[in-house]
Structures are given as structure tokens and as C-alpha cells.
Specification:
By secondary structure, the chain is of the alpha/beta class. Helix content is 58%, strand content 13%. The protein is built from 19 helices and 16 strands.
């Protein structure tokens, strides 16, 4: 599998201003906290600047008058130093408070964004997860979210603090010396130009770094989940080569981004030292040349210290710009997910519990009754009608393609009467699973009609449609939790007795009771401690406890050995009793008792009938069933 770039891999932020404003909208619940943060930042910046400026009065008003006195009075100096200590303490307390408050804002914002992402993800269509690697999606929850935390809790407060310090220091420098301030601004513009140039070059590499990180995470996740296949086919070296290629791209982006970042500090520091030297020379000349009228010793010392305070925020801002750029790149990836179009659902027919009287009258019930009906609200007159759920599913001349350019199902028609068992057989890619994906509306058809109890399924709300279907997939997914909880996943209202009964139906009860803690055995890692067959049996039990009127079994027994299959088949027959069932099977021996078997080839139904009818026709099904092979 060649390493590829993720979709939307641009090197420039599309609209950083819009992204930043959207990100700030998540901080609205913390407006009071942010107001306090701004106040504390201003106090901290004022204290920082004032502590430097106080060097002027300290030297001129308190230290110089004491020199040469026989009995100097130190109390004014002590009071002044005490006042400076109070100012320093105010700055320390303010810095602590705004740091503490920003952590609260950052973590709260992170939580809200993660909540929105997860809620939105639940509404996305299956198509999204079929076209986006799981590792790349996970990277948005982890690495990209973390960059936002760093920006909110560190970069933004530091930028605001630096700007406030710059303004305060600039005002105090103007008060100290207009001449040196003019010199200072000329050199400062040079420093800012260098900072801006470096930041512009580094921004694209930080964006690329986030993209490459998503690709690495995606590949690692894929290799972890497929490690058994890698080892079986001895592809360790190949995988290492592919990973090295992706990882090398991440290294290049990270190196370039890091190189520019690390360059900023030394460059700004050295430029600051040059500036300091220039100011000291010119300031000394002004002080000597004017005899202290334009600039005295205390003013020069204070100004030189203020110049260092002025350069420090410039360096801090330049360092934080990279964190902000990287966070905006992560935010764009997050908002890409949030902006994905949710699964459309215009259905208005819902599924309700009901009771049916002997005369056929359907009455809606609040609690579980074991009977269901489709509830039709009529907008014209406000009336409601009910159609008993029977499990009658028909498809009329259905065409479908995953992409508009390629049709994979052609003119499919089928009729599943309530309680019937329909089977699909055919080669891989013939369209068997695609048909079931259309029944539960994971995808919508391009042409034709699908009706459920005479109702166009487009009119049925998707959640209610899927609630009426029980599905056992070939790829089993078990969640972290006990065996009992995994079975109950099919029906959260099911009691322990219901779950055990369902496990017995699927013939899973015996092996579950032999587990270390029986039904309370904790499963992790998709049930890694169980065999593939055992995981499949739990999945079948999960479908059984849901007690749906329609079942879809997509290779439900494919991972079960022949002996276990014989045991499971009895349970499956009991599970399918009285239910409309669609079975996808490669083992043709498992579908001999189907009411109708349909043979698919390249998206067409080429044969249909019972097992006996198809054998008598001696067509494709006959060749498959009597040949020396079965479909794989």
C-alpha cells in the first residue's frame, strides 16, 4: 500500500482569520474569565514595565543624593524599595492568576470541541468512514486538539502580555528620551522585519507538519490492527520501508518548522544585543554632550533596561506565532470534520411499540410489547395512521453506484415476504453486501424503489428503519466491557436473563460459562482474548437479543469452524423463525433451506429460485454447488 497524502493536504491555511474567529466562539462561556485574564495581563505588563522605569528615580532621587553624606537617611530609599517590592508582587500574583484562568479556559474549550466533534461524527454517513483513514480521524482528536490547548493556554496569553508590555514600555521610553526612542524604533523595525520573514517561511512547514503527523498516525493505526496479516505474509520489511517514507516526510516538515523556530530566538537575541550596544553608545554621547540636561545617568540606565524589556516581547511573540500557526492548521483539520455534511434524513415515518386488537386495530404503546407498527403522520389533516410491521421488503429496478461514474448494481428487483429467508451468493464484488447496505440506507439508491411494508424507505426515519433490522457482519466489533454488556448492546433494555437466552439461541452460552468470569469477563481490544469464532457467536447473540423483525446476516458463520457451524445453524434457524432474513453466504451448504436464492454476477441477478430449482436448471449455481470449490 503506497503511502499517500490525506485529502485536503494544503501547505497554507485557507482562511486563518475565519478559523481564529470560529475558534474564539468556543470561548464565549468563559467571557468573565477572559476579562479577568486581560485585566491580570495588563497589571502584570504594567508591573514589568514600571519595575524597569523605576531605575531612573531610584538612581537620581534616592541613590545619588545619599552619596557623599556623612549621616545618610535610608528610610526614603527603603520605602521606595518596598514600593517596588509591592509592584513586583502584584505582577507575580497577576501572572499566576491569568495562567490559572487560561488553563481552565483551555481545558473547557478543548472539552467542548471534542464533544462537538464526537456528536458530529455520530451523524456522519458511513461513506465518510469508508473514505477517511481511522488514524487520520484520531489524529484530529489528539494531536490537533493538543495544539489548540497550547495556543489557548500559552501562546495567546503570552502574545497579549507581550503586546501590552510593548505598549507600556514604549510610552515609558518616550517619557525617558525622545532621541533614544527614535533610534530604538529604527532598530526595532529591523528586528520585526527579520521576525516576520522567518515566521512567514515557517508557517507553511508547521501546517505540513500537522498533515504529515495525521498520515503517520493513520499508518501506525492501520499496521497495529493488521499486524497478524503483516506477519503471516512476512511483510515486516515492506511495511518498515513504507513507514520510513511517511515518517521521513514528517521529519522533513518538522525539521524545517523546528529549524526556523529555533533560529528565531538566537537571531532576535543577537539583534537585541546589537541594538543595546547602539543605544548605549548614542545614549552615553547624548548624556555627556548635554551635560545631563537631555539625558542623565538614571534615565540612561532605565532606558537601556526598558530596551531589553521591549525586545523580549518581540522575541516572545515571534516564538508564539509558530504555535498559533500550528494550532490554526490543527483547527482547520478539526473544522473540516465538523463541516462534513451529516447524514441526510428526510424520513417522517417512525417505528413505535403497539398492540393489535382482534379486529386489526393498532394502538400505540409507550412500553415494550413485542409488536411494532409504522406511524404515519399526515400533514394535510394532522391525522396519524399505523401500519403493522411485518417485514415485507421489496426492491424494484434498483440501480446504484458508490460513485456516480460507476454503477455496481443494475436493475435489481426482489421480493421478500414476511418470514421468508432470502440468500445472496456470488463472487466477491458481485454486489451482495451492497444490497443489504441499501436496505438499511447506509447508502441511497440512484434509481428505482425500495419498499418496507409498502412504505418507501426514504420516508422512514433512518434510526427507526435501522432499529427494525438486526445485522450480523462478517467483521465483528466488540467493545471494551463485559461479555454481558456486549450482548446487551443490541438492546439496552434487555435483562441479564434476556442476554443469556440470546446467547443460548446462538449456542454461545457454553463457551461463555467456561470463561474466567463467565458473562462478567472483561473484553478489551475487540475481544482479542477470544477466538474469531467466539467473537462471531457473541455478535450473533447481540443480534438475537435485539429481537428485530428483519435479520441481515453477512457471512455470519464465516469465521466458525464446521463443527461449531452445525451447532450455530440450529440457533440461527431459531433466530430466523418468523423473521424476514437476508443471508449472504459463501458456503452454499448454509443456504440450501432458503426460500429464494439469488445468484449475483457483476451487479446483476442472473439466477433466482430455491435450491432444488437452481440445481435442476444446471446453471451457475449448479456449477458452484456441485463443483470442487465454493465461492471465496
Amino acid at each position: 500500500m503506497p503511502p499517500v497524502r490525506m485529502k485536503g493536504d494544503g501547505r497554507k491555511a485557507k482562511n486563518p482569520k475565519k478559523t481564529l474567529l470560529r475558534l474564539f466562539s468556543y470561548t464565549k462561556p468563559y467571557r468573565i474569565n477572559l476579562l479577568l485574564v486581560v485585566i491580570c495581563i495588563l497589571l502584570s505588563s504594567f508591573a514589568t514595565a514600571l519595575s524597569s522605569y523605576s531605575l531612573d528615580p531610584l538612581i537620581n532621587n534616592y541613590i545619588k543624593p545619599l552619596t557623599g553624606q556623612n549621616n545618610p537617611d535610608y528610610m526614603p530609599l527603603i520605602r521606595f524599595l518596598f514600593g517596588m517590592g509591592v509592584v513586583y508582587m502584584l505582577g507575580i500574583i497577576s501572572s499566576f492568576l491569568y495562567s490559572f484562568l487560561m488553563v481552565k479556559v483551555g481545558q473547557g474549550t478543548q472539552k467542548q470541541i471534542r464533544d462537538d466533534m464526537f456528536r458530529h461524527m455520530q451523524k456522519l454517513p458511513i461513506r465518510y468512514f469508508d473514505t477517511h483513514p481511522a488514524g487520520d480521524v484520531m489524529s484530529r482528536y489528539t494531536a490537533d486538539i493538543d495544539t489548540l490547548r497550547q495556543m489557548i493556554t500559552q501562546a495567546l496569553p503570552n502574545c497579549i502580555s507581550s503586546i501590552a508590555t510593548l505598549v507600556t514600555v514604549f510610552v515609558l521610553m518616550l517619557k525617558s528620551s525622545l532621541i533614544l526612542t527614535a533610534v530604538m524604533m529604527v532598530t526595532a523595525f529591523g528586528i520585526l522585519y527579520v521576525t516576520k520573514t522567518v515566521a512567514m517561511h515557517s508557517a507553511k512547514f508547521f501546517i505540513g507538519q500537522q498533515k504529515s503527523l495525521g498520515a503517520v498516525n493513520s499508518y501506525v493505526e492501520e499496521m497495529i490492527s493488521g499486524q497478524r496479516v503483516v506477519k503471516v505474509f512476512c511483510r515486516e520489511e515492506t511495511c518498515k520501508g513504507e513507514f520510513n517514507t511517511i515518517n521521513e516526510e514528517l521529519r522533513k516538515d518538522a525539521f524545517k518548522a523546528g529549524a526556523f523556530t529555533n533560529m528565531m530566538g538566537p537571531v532576535n537575541n543577537n539583534l537585541g544585543y546589537i541594538q543595546y550596544t547602539i543605544l548605549a553608545i548614542i545614549g552615553g554621547a547624548v548624556a555627556i554632550g548635554s551635560g545631563g540636561n537631555l539625558l542623565d545617568l538614571g534615565g540612561l540606565a532605565a532606558f537601556l533596561l526598558l530596551s531589553r524589556k521591549f525586545n523580549m516581547p518581540i522575541g516572545q511573540v515571534s516564538n508564539q506565532i509558530n504555535a498559533i500557526v500550528m494550532a490554526l492548521a490543527g483547527a482547520e483539520r478539526i473544522f473540516q470534520l465538523l463541516d462534513e455534511e451529516v447524514e441526510a434524513d428526510e424520513g417522517y415515518v417512525t417505528l413505535v411499540n403497539c398492540n393489535t386488537s382482534p379486529d386489526g386495530t393498532v394502538t400505540e404503546c409507550a412500553g415494550y410489547t413485542g409488536q411494532w407498527a409504522w406511524k404515519h403522520p399526515h400533514q394535510a389533516d394532522g391525522t396519524v395512521t399505523y401500519t403493522p410491521l411485518k417485514g415485507d421488503i421489496t426492491m424494484h429496478n434498483v440501480d446504484f453506484g458508490y460513485v456516480s461514474e460507476k454503477t455496481v448494481l443494475h436493475n435489481i428487483s426482489l421480493y421478500a415476504n414476511p418470514g421468508q429467508k432470502l440468500a445472496f451468493v456470488g463472487a466477491t464484488g458481485a454486489g451482495k453486501t451492497t444490497i443489504t447496505n441499501l436496505i438499511n440506507r447506509f447508502y441511497d439508491i440512484a434509481d428505482g424503489k425500495i419498499r418496507y411494508d409498502g412504505i418507501n424507505i426514504n420516508k422512514i426515519r433512518k434510526s427507526d428503519l435501522r432499529r427494525s433490522l438486526g445485522i450480523v457482519l462478517q467483521d465483528t466489533n466488540l467493545f471494551t466491557g463485559t461479555v454481558m454488556e456486549n450482548i446487551r448492546y443490541g438492546n439496552l433494555d434487555a435483562s441479564d436473563e434476556d442476554c443469556i437466552r440470546a446467547a443460548k439461541t446462538a449456542n454461545a452460552h457454553d463457551f461463555i460459562t467456561r470463561l474466567p468470569e463467565g458473562y462478567n469477563t472483561q473484553l478489551t481490544g475487540n475481544g482479542a482474548q477470544l477466538s474469531q469464532g467466539q467473537r462471531q457467536l457473541i455478535a450473533i447473540a447481540r443480534a438475537a437479543v435485539a429481537n428485530p423483525p428483519v435479520m441481515i446476516l453477512d457471512e455470519a458463520t464465516s469465521s466458525i469452524d464446521t463443527r461449531t457451524e452445525a451447532l450455530v445453524q440450529n440457533g440461527m434457524d431459531a433466530l430466523m423463525q418468523g423473521r424476514t432474513t437476508f443471508v449472504i453466504a459463501h458456503r452454499l451448504s448454509t443456504v440450501r433451506n432458503a426460500d429464494c436464492i439469488m445468484v449475483l454476477e457483476n451487479g446483476h441477478i442472473i439466477e433466482r429460485g430455491t435450491h432444488q430449482d437452481l440445481i435442476a436448471e444446471k446453471g451457475t449455481y449448479y456449477q458452484l454447488y456441485t463443483g470442487a470449490f465454493e465461492l471465496e
